[in-house]
Amino acid sequence: MAINAREILNDFTNGVGALSGMDSAFMQKFMDLDGSAGGDILSSKTKELIGVAIGIYNRCQYCICVHTSGAYAAGATRQEIMAAAEVAIAFGGGPSVAYSAAVLNAALDEFEHDFD
Fold it and tell me: pTM of the full predicted structure?
């Protein structure tokens, strides 16, 4: 089965929108927390690369797609995203390789030229 990274990203975005419709105050608090994590010490690019690595380590296809797109949007290169993936693979072993081989490769190819 081929991975459709854009569909995964859209499903996530639409799902967050639906959750916001049910409890906008809670989701706003979560989004504020997510956006402020790392404060001004870490750049947006670094935060997104960490998100890619954590997504791979936790085997979350939504996280991988969201943060791969976000990393590209923040100015990361394919090589930087792959370096973050390598760190996750070093800690996560075979399952992290599997998610990198399937989901990350699809996300890298899908979003690579969205922010040129």
Answer: 0.90
